[in-house]
Amino acid sequence: MSTAIYLEHYLDSLDGLPKELERKFNEMRELDSCSQELNVEIDKLAEDYLINVKGLNKQDKKNHLLNIQNCFSKSKKFSDEKVQLALQTYELVDRHIRRLDADLARFESELKVQQLKFATQEHVTKSTNNSNNTKPGKKKNDKDSSDNECGKKRKKRAQEHNIATSNSLPSSAPLTMLPLVPTNQHSDVLDMPVDPNEPTYCTCHQVSYGEMIGCDNPDCPIEWFHFGCVGLSTKPKGKWYCSRCTAERKKNLKH
């Protein structure tokens, strides 16, 4: 069943609902009006009774109380009828809601079946197309595999030829070795990102890296130096002074 048919059937069932609801609401309004009038009458009877209770005899008191009680009974009856109408109205609307939910559930179930059927047909169609596309390509794959086999055989023959050629060379043939190119470690270190808050050293005013040596002059303003910056490759024996401190020491010795 299509969506339009479900919707048409549901709208047909709603044709009489607005009028039915209007009728029940009018009845509840009338009952409520009657109940309000009785409440006003009850208040008036109760006020008269309280004012005249001292001058009434026992029978008059009883009649006044019975009259008030009857008004309360009528008001309760109107209220009960109004509650029953409200429940009937709720049940009427709820019945249409349940029907709509049932129709929606059936529609969703049918829609899922149709989607599953469509997906199955699409899968079968794709499988058929893939099988049709695979068959004509079989010869091409066979050709590619044969080409690969021929290539492997040619490569194997070339390797055997190279081995035979290398074995024919004299054992004393010199082998040429490429010299190793040293890397510039100092340049690599300088290219590294530096923390701006990290202290700097040496005459190059760079951060600490690699091997460093400290000047033995306690008053040296620089204190630490990189091996490469002061021309050292290994740590010297004994005390070591930087060029600046060495010049100052020589100057002091002359004096």
UniProtKB/TrEMBL annotation:
Q: Ranges of Polar residues compositional bias?
A: 162-174
Q: Where is the composition biased (Basic and acidic residues)?
A: 139-151
Give residue ranges for domain PHD-type.
199-248
Residues the UniProt record annotates as site (Histone H3K4me3 binding) = Y201, M212, D216, W224
GO terms under cellular component: nucleus
Q: Where does the record place it?
A: Nucleus
Its Gene Ontology molecular function terms? zinc ion binding
In the record's own words, the domains note is: The PHD-type zinc finger mediates the binding to H3K4me3.
Q: What does this protein do?
A: Component of an histone acetyltransferase complex.
Q: What is this protein called?
A: Inhibitor of growth protein
Provenance organism: Helobdella robusta (Californian leech)
Gene responsible for this protein: 20210022
